[in-house]
Specification:
The chain has two domains: about 5-170 and about 290-370, Zn peptidases (Aminopeptidase), CATH 3.40.630; about 175-285, Alpha-Beta Plaits (2-Layer Sandwich). It is built from ten helices and 16 strands. The chain has helices at about 5-20, 25-40, 100-115, 135-140, 140-145, 200-215, 255-275, 295-305, 325, 360-370, and strands at about 45, 50-55, 65-70, 120-125, 145-155, 165, 170, 175-185, 185-190, 220-230, 235-240, 240-250, 275-285, 290, 310, 330-340. The longest helix is centred in the C-terminal third of the chain and has 22 residues, at about 255-275. The relative contact order is 0.19.
Length: about 375
């Protein structure tokens, strides 16, 4: 990687960081990235609905194309004024490093523009990773363009800076947000017998999550109470509506689906006993993310060829990732790059992407495109 490419990519990252946008609203982010690639390369760019890709075409190849993905969205987290490039959008900031993922892919674009390629290379800039909606929108491109391999990286604290981290097979779990809404009848607080308050049913369901957790599961399983709301705190009212928000996380999608069905059935049982009605809704749905063995071997070989330290994770990273939607279509692998052993955690106000790992990410992409 030329030093000028790294410098441009870091400057781009700071621009993206200053103007973060939430999932599904990455309009300025996308336009900034398109301008950068258009102004600095001759790569073909195609804008889709809410996302885009850049292409280095090889019209004479007989083998399938290869793709690399970066995510564009930020988080609803307030950022203080400590950085010279701090977020100017109140309550929104890049606290997961997607600004750095995009910058690294753009550094790769700068190098790719002058490379001789033996197959077409697609750079996918994806929206809405944080909500689990973006990859599902972009993944059909793999089949449309006969893409046979797809790769991505994520930055990760707790590991040496620039170290390549990987896991064979299942590397991140499936997860889903489940909201259960209970409806009864509001009454005066002095006459609760004239109403149907859902508080007891919701409490019983919250306690039932412990039963689920204590049972045997195929691999890792988690059920976290993310929120409970009953009434508005008015002491004169016995509320007739309430809800509970649960985050389900499982090593296998089948296990998650089974647990979800049991929770809904149990909630319906409690509602029937108390004369309540039930509605349920799923959100932030993430697939299990599983690395293809052949693609992961290429990741390991690329790191070795570049002289980068590489380490296998001893357990999966429990945060979810929507990259699994790509690997449902074609083989692929996601790897991680260490931010530093004492680096601030992702999704915290103190976090900021480590610009010093941009070269490692871009060089890994270059090497993988040549393999």
């Amino acid at each position: 990687m030329r030093e000028e490419y790294i410098k441009k990519a870091a400057e781009l990252r700071h621009t993206l960081h200053m103007h973060p946008e939430l999932s599904g609203h990455e309009h300025e982010t996308m336009n900034t990235l398109i301008r950068f690639i258009s102004d600095n390369t001759s790569l073909y760019i195609e804008k889709r609905d809410g996302w885009f890709y850049a292409l280095k075409e090889c019209p004479y190849t007989k083998e399938g194309a290869i793709a690399f993905r970066a995510d564009m969205d930020a988080l609803p987290i307030h950022e203080g004024p400590g950085l010279s490039y701090a977020s100017v959008n109140a309550g929104v900031s890049h606290k997961c490093g997607h600004d750095g993922h995009c910058a690294a892919l753009c550094a790769f674009a700068l190098a790719l523009d002058g490379m001789e390629v033996t197959r077409s290379v697609y750079l996918i800039f994806q929206p809405a990773e944080e909500t689990g909606l973006g990859a599902a929108v972009c993944a059909p491109l793999l089949r449309e363009k006969s893409i046979t391999e797809v790769y991505a990286f994520h930055n990760l604290g707790g590991y040496e800076e620039g170290e390549i981290i990987y896991r064979r097979g299942l590397t991140q779990p499936a997860s889903e947000g489940l909201t259960l809404r209970f409806s009864g009848k509001t009454s005066h607080a002095s006459e609760p017998e004239n109403g149907k308050n859902p508080a007891e049913a919701i409490s019983r369901l919250a306690l039932y999550t412990k039963t689920l957790l204590n049972e045997a599961h195929a691999g890792i399983f988690m059920c976290t109470v993310a929120g409970i709301k009953v009434g508005n705190g008015d002491f004169g009212i016995s509320p007739g509506r309430g809800e509970i928000n649960l985050t389900l996380r499982a090593e296998y999608e089948s296990e998650l689906i089974s647990a979800k069905e049991r929770l809904i059935n149990k909630a319906q049982e409690f509602c029937k006993a108390d004369g309540l009605s039930l509605e349920h809704e799923s959100s932030d749905c993430f697939p299990e993310t599983k690395n293809d063995a052949g693609c992961l071997e290429k990741v390991i070989k690329a790191a070795a060829a570049l002289g980068l330290s590489a380490r296998e994770m001893d357990r999966m990273w429990l945060a979810s990732e929507d990259f699994g939607n790509y690997t449902k279509v074609c083989p692929g692998a996601i790897f991680y790059i260490g931010n530093g052993t004492d680096y601030p955690a992702l999704h915290t106000a103190e976090y900021d992407f480590n610009d010093r790992i941009i070269p490692a990410a871009a060089e890994m992409f270059i090497k993988l495109s040549e393999m």
